[in-house]
Amino acid sequence: MLCAPLDPDSAEAQALIAELDVSLEAICGDSGSGSFDPADMRGATSVFLVARDAHGVAIGCGALRPLAPGVAELKRMYARSGTGAGRFLLAALEEQAAAFGYRELWLSTRRVNARALAFYARHGYRRLENYGKYAGREVSVCLGKCLR
Q1: How far apart are CA 79 and CA 3, in angstroms?
Q2: Domain containing residue 137
Q3: How many domains does the chain divide into?
Q4: pTM (two decimals)
């Protein structure tokens, strides 16, 4: 499996983001698309990664952007079901975040998204106090992981 940067406005990226939107809408009642701006992925310490299978087919995506000094925020994490791409993609994003000099990676997901909560828990993410626009929102759960 290969994970590499891709412009979030590209057709492949937009197709994966659309799949994520449909999936989140079904699970949470909200696609979460309002919390993602492709322009945020164009900074020197931001990236949008796409995971590809052995045939070069795009099967997952994820992004990170600066949130606070030493902290990156994980955005639009998605892997097609049954591909196993999620763990590879998350590892690649964590590696990239560390290379950018981030010490922590934070994210928000919906409380009802049990699959996402279990996935992140398996990979060492722990509950944080809700930050930023998620503060005080009972539907949101914020998680974080120290990278070093």
Answers
A1: 12
A2: 2-146
A3: 1
A4: 0.89
Per-residue pLDDT of the chain (148 residues; tens, 9 = 90+): 899 999 999 999 988 888 887 776 765 555 555 566 777 778 899 999 999 999 999 999 999 999 999 999 999 898 988 888 999 999 999 999 999 999 999 999 988 888 899 999 999 999 999 999 999 999 899 999 999 7
CB 139 within 8 A of CB 121: no
In this structure, are strands 140-146 and 2-5 parallel, antiparallel, or unpaired? unpaired
Q: Which residues contact 131 (CB under 8 A, 6 or more apart)?
A: 67, 106, 108, 142
Distance CA 91, CA 38 (A): 21
Q: What is the CATH number of the domain that holds 41?
A: 3.40.630.30
Cα–Cα distance for residue pair 47/124, rounded to 1 Å: 21
Q: Which tokens is 110 given?
A: 């919906």
CB 136 within 8 A of CB 130: yes
Give residue for tokens 């097609």.
80
Give backbone dihedrals phi and psi of 68, rounded to 5 degrees, phi first.
-155, 165
